[in-house]
Amino acid sequence: MAKGPTVYHVAERAGVSIATVSFTFRQPEKVKASTRELVLAAADELGYVPSASARGLARGRTGALGLFAYDYLLDPSGGPGVQGGLPHDVDAPGDREEGNLRLFPLYVDEVQRGVELECWRRGQALLVGGGNPANNEAVLSDIAGRVDGLAVFPRSVPVEALARIARRIPVVEVSESLRNRGMDHVTVDNASGARAITEHLIKGHGLTELMFIGAMPSTDNDERLEAFRGALAAAGVKLRHEPRYPAGGELTVAETVRTICHQGSLPQAFVCATDQDALVVMDVLAAAGVAVPKQVAVTGFDGIAAGRVIRPSLTTVRQPMERMGRTMVELLLDRLDHPEKPPVDLKLPVRLVLRESCGCQPS
Amino acid sequence: MAKGPTVYHVAERAGVSIATVSFTFRQPEKVKASTRELVLAAADELGYVPSASARGLARGRTGALGLFAYDYLLDPSGGPGVQGGLPHDVDAPGDREEGNLRLFPLYVDEVQRGVELECWRRGQALLVGGGNPANNEAVLSDIAGRVDGLAVFPRSVPVEALARIARRIPVVEVSESLRNRGMDHVTVDNASGARAITEHLIKGHGLTELMFIGAMPSTDNDERLEAFRGALAAAGVKLRHEPRYPAGGELTVAETVRTICHQGSLPQAFVCATDQDALVVMDVLAAAGVAVPKQVAVTGFDGIAAGRVIRPSLTTVRQPMERMGRTMVELLLDRLDHPEKPPVDLKLPVRLVLRESCGCQPS
DNA sequence: GAACCGAATCAAAGCGCTTAGATATTTCCT
DNA sequence: AGGAAATATCTAAGCGCTTTGATTCGGTTC
User: Fold this and answer.
1) What is the pLDDT of residues A65-123, one digit of tens each?
2) Domain architecture of chain B: domains with CATH
3) Measured from the CB, is A59 under 7 Å from any atom of strand D?
4) In this complex, is the C-beta atom of B26 within 8 Å of any C-beta atom belonging to chain A?
5) Which UniProt keywords are given for this protein, alphabetically ordered (chains A, B) (predicted)?
6) pLDDT tens for residues B252-284?
7) Residue B37: partners with Cβ closer than 8 Å, 6 or more residues away
8) How far is the CA of A18 from the C1' of C12 (A)?
9) Across the interface, do A354 and B126 touch by the CB < 8 Å criterion?
10) Which of A213, A353, B132, B355 is the most exposed place for a label (fewest CB within 10 A)?
């Protein structure tokens, strides 16, 4: 287990210079076939594995991309998680350690998967870092020092810290395009999605008393709310139920809905800012004995897996999450070749997914 | 976007030597407080981010661990995937690109998650690499050059390639402990699990005609089969249905079960080698109009999320997957400190999870 | 056979950081 | 105040690789 063999050892064994060894691995066509085999044989016998540190230092590029994957489930302010309303199970209690909370892949998981797949497809190494809410910045900086480009989730890290990193290497962020100029962004067409789902409720199901609800004010959610309002106005529906936005976590979504149930002032539909919000809403409604979609329709936004399996299944707007991840990788690699191009905001299309919770029939 | 600032720039700006800059970041207590602040200020103004390549080269350690995550779903021989028998959905067709196959986290996903969480908790950087079945070895070698230790899934990579890597850096493998001496292993107590589930069928449900079935002969599966046999023998149950093991994929599990259905020679229970096998079995049975568990019981092994949600829910033996991932990281870090200790085989406990598919009632 | 040429190989200069060991500075005694 | 001991900082030598420009080599051409 002594310190492993280096180019020097291989070179000596093959009777060539270290330059030739390097060429053999990086630009094989520059080396005469016979020499190449000699070197490869020596490398093989020695069990030579090139040091990425040395290469990275010499080339000025590490050849790896980074993903800063913030775990929302570990976030104390993250709310009740995704499991509300899902089928319970005899072995659930005490199984937390083993991933009960993660029965389904979450939004971030699916995007992360896209990043992984695209990196692998392109032979790029991928460093995934996580917070560790304690020392997010230290972790981020550590990752930044290891990679050529970085993909991050919104609000996983302070803006200034991110800006600082972005001065050194390309950074691409999901959503939040309005803030953080100076880096690329991948977003989805929130407006179209929210409009489509609102119009469907109005025209498809003849509902007019719609209420928008969501836990967090984010760029995405704001755009959705805006489009929701627009769709109501366009349809000539007057806003009986004011959009509710228990922003900042003052009032949780659950509490808000619970109150509404008690007051008996239910709208005809809850248009939720996200699927996770919708799951919470449906959970509360079930507990209060309110039938979905009979008494009230519920819609989400995102298209996470859990919404597909829950009963009633969740009508939603699906974001192309895997593709978003892949796109981030593409943007990063592009940016490495063209550092001076102006920052890009790539807006990906969404798709209305009609399921049971709005009143549609499953096929 | 010029090449970023280095220790030299920071040193110059702070009016100290580069050594002091380095100390400020690595061993702050060795630097006088006033100097430290000077350096940190300079670093901050310059947007200094230490280069991990340079550090790795100088220290002989990269400070990162690697995970070689083979994607079984991309494996052409991987069989029908996990979705057999799961609820279908209006938006399923054509949605493949967006992760339909991964509606639930698979075994590898949960283990990977454990690796990630433990790395993050310990402030370790984590490199996840994937095959790319084409050039697995190249990818593996690339990763190996970047990390201090490597975690791999069984049979994701040729044994010799792995052995070669293991000569250079610590490697820990899931399962397969019988092969590949010379590296650490994390396994589970397959024997206890298989025995427990078999005994439950015999004593709990009074079944005597049990049939073992699984797609792949692996160390894990062999141990399970062995314990299955042992449990039958111990219970004095004679083996009416010979353990069926369509090894090597000659006959797929699906075909085997289909044939059995047609012949009308059903056992009282299918004891499957893995949950994925069990899902396939249940899918075929459903298609053949055979009621589970009324006409035949089915059990799995692993405890993947899908088995919890499918109806009837799947009785199985749960592996502590997240913990296995965490354990791999622990072993790796241990091994770095104690290279000469003999290789370890860590056998983690499993837990019998009774659900509907064996005939038990959900609570 | 001298002059020349392309191809193959090599020598050497870093890349940005860590860390012994040397040196400068401060602290604390007597 | 003088000097030893403790502390703070610096000098300089790598770490293993890439890559430019120089050198060597085996042939061609005239």
Assistant:
1) 999 987 665 543 333 344 444 444 434 333 433 445 568 888 999 999 999 999 999 98
2) 7-50 (1.10.260.40), 64-188+320-349 (3.40.50.2300), 190-319+353-358 (3.40.50.2300)
3) yes
4) no
5) DNA-binding, Repressor, Transcription, Transcription regulation
6) 889 989 999 999 889 999 999 999 999 999 999
7) none
8) 12
9) no
10) B132
